[in-house]
Write a structure and sequence with these properties.
Elements: H1 4-19, H2 25-41, H3 46-62, H4 69-87, E1 103-108, H5 115-128, E2 133-137, H6 145-156, E3 160-161, H7 169-182, E4 187-191, H8 200-213, E5 217-223, H9 229-240, E6 243-249, H10 258-267, E7 271-275, E8 283-285, H11 288-295, H12 301-310, H13 313-316, H14 318-325, H15 331-343, H16 347-353, H17 357-360, H18 366-382, H19 385-388, E9 392-397, E10 405-410, H20 415-425, H21 429-454, H22 458-462
Parallel strand pairs: 1-4, 1-5, 2-3, 2-4, 5-6, 6-7
Antiparallel strand pairs: 7-8, 9-10
Helix pairs in contact: 1-2, 1-4, 2-3, 3-4, 4-11, 5-6, 7-8, 9-10, 18-20, 20-21
The protein binds guanosine-5'-diphosphate.
Residues 109, 111-117, 142, 194, 249-250, 252, 275-278 line the site of guanosine-5'-diphosphate.
């Protein structure tokens, strides 16, 4: 998972408070020092860390140390959570495209930052949602840029504009956007040239391109692997063009993503997507609360539900849709969703979205994580059809009719059945408890969302 090490270090520091007999100011200081160290190791900017540390301390020390150590740890955890979310949430919103009109996005960033790849992912994202999408290549600097876009365009079946004989990026930008505006395209993505370094020439060219394409949003693409340097880079771009939002690339499995995250503060522009791999579908919508939640091993049910909506599994299963609309979510539904997400090839994503699971799997290699998920699947297999459908009953001799049987209905699977299921699945009982607990949480959430929240959520449909 993204920045997993940071999450486990923060949790490690906090868990020390749980075992401390007295939580005084010195104990709080020592935990905060450890957390600050972890943030710095992940390349979060020194000033940002100092600021966060002061804020957390202020928030935590407002209450006297009266509270027990467990609740103090919880308080600090909450304060850390809030500070990380604040760090990642500037006050401004990203541009929201408007249906039925041309929405032009201009992508800027250094060469190799992942612009062309991100454009293809971004195009794929909108096209899949039914928006008429096209790409324009005016990167005349990098040999092969047009070819790369062309290959992506063919794979995605999305039109593109470029001309290998034209050397003037401004001309290409103007012609390309005009062409697609005239054709009624709704999402027009403009790829600009990058350079190896920030050079006056690059910025000048960017400004000229901007003048002719009149973008609705300038998206700054930054490579998370370059660490701290990204903050300076972000500020330089921001000075030259009005960066409206940020896409952070290559966050897959990289521990030093903190620099990129704190660079958001430098641009004061929201992160909209993060790149988590080279494939077109390896880009996730960024939500600060979900991200920090996952980072701290608290799970991300919203992300899970979004994945579910995105997988189109619901459209294929009208019965499930009907149940969800009534606020029902059975163990069978949970099993099917696990399967869907696994089929999409995102084991890491699935793990990070489930509260408790990521902590349990920290430090494990992916094969062990895979085994744990398989253990869950075996648990589902050991359940009866009734249990999967939420009918929990035990067969007992009928007291009124000797020799016959009757059923006792229960609200949850009985302890003896749980033991049987765990044994049948070959997993420790604790693991099955975790699965049942997860199911309860999802059930509770679906119950709350019902049809209105889940299916009619405008944000989910449009974003
Ligand atoms: P550009 O010069 O800014 O257009 O960069 P490219 O889009 O050509 O990307 C540079 C390299 O980074 C390519 O090899 C991409 O496959 C790779 N890349 C881009 N985004 C990601 C990402 O999110 N994760 C990983 N692992 N690689 C990425």
């Amino acid at each position: 998972m993204v920045l997993q090490e940071l999450g486990s270090k923060i949790n490690g520091a906090l868990s020390k408070l749980n075992t401390a007999s007295v939580v005084d100011e010195a104990a709080v200081d020592s935990v905060l020092k450890e957390i600050a160290g972890a943030l710095l190791m992940s390349d979060v900017n020194v000033r940002t860390v100092a600021e966060m540390r002061t804020n957390i301390k202020r928030e935590v020390m407002q209450d006297s140390i009266r509270a027990g150590s467990t609740s103090k740890a919880k308080q600090i955890r909450n304060a850390v959570f809030n500070e990380l979310v604040r760090l990642l949430s500037p006050d401004v919103d990203a541009y929201r495209p408007v249906k039925g009109k041309a929405n032009v996005f201009m992508f800027v960033g250094l060469q190799g930052s992942g612009k062309t790849t991100s454009i293809a992912k971004f195009a794929n994202y909108w096209a899949r949602k039914g928006w008429k999408t096209a790409m324009v290549c005016c990167d005349t600097f990098r040999a092969g840029a047009l070819d790369q876009m062309k290959q992506n365009a063919i794979k995605l079946r999305i039109p593109y504009f470029g001309n290998p004989l034209e050397a003037d990026p401004v001309k290409l930008a103007e012609e390309g956007t005009k062409h697609f505006r005239d054709e009624g395209y709704e999402i027009i993505l403009v790829d600009t040239s990058g350079r190896h370094q920030q050079e006056a020439e690059l910025f000048e060219e960017m400004e000229q391109v901007m003048d002719v394409v009149e973008p609705d949003e300038v998206i700054f693409v930054m490579d998370s692997t370059i660490g701290q340097a990204v903050a300076d880079q972000a500020s330089a771009f921001k000075k030259s063009v009005p960066v409206g939002s940020v896409i952070i690339t290559k966050l897959d499995g990289h521990a030093k993503g903190g620099g990129a995250l704190s660079a958001v503060a430098a641009t004061n522009a929201p992160i909209t997507f993060i790149g988590t791999g080279e494939h077109f579908d390896e880009m996730e919508r960024f939500d600060a609360r979900s991200f920090v939640s996952r980072l701290m091993g608290l799970g991300d049910m919203r992300g899970f539900m979004e994945k579910l909506a995105d997988s189109k599994a619901l459209e294929k299963s009208p019965e499930m849709m009907e149940r969800l609309q009534k606020g029902q979510f059975t163990l069978r539904d949970l099993r099917d969703q696990f399967k869907t997400i696994l089929n999409m090839g995102s084991l890491g994503q699935l793990v990070s979205m489930i509260p408790g699971l990521s902590q349990m799997m920290q430090g494990q290699d992916p094969t062990a994580a895979q085994k744990n998920i398989e253990g869950f699947m075996n648990c589902f297999d050991s359940m009866t059809e009734d249990e999967l459908d939420g009918i929990y009953r035990t067969r007992i001799p009928d007291p009124k009719l000797p020799g016959k049987y009757t059923y006792v209905y229960e609200k949850q699977i009985s302890e003896s059945r749980l033991r049987r299921i765990a044994k049948g699945a070959g997993v420790p009982l604790q693991r099955l408890y975790l699965l049942i607990q997860q199911h309860k949480q999802f059930e509770g959430m679906v119950g709350k969302l019902g049809k209105k929240g889940l299916m009619n959520d405008q944000r989910m449909q449009q974003q």
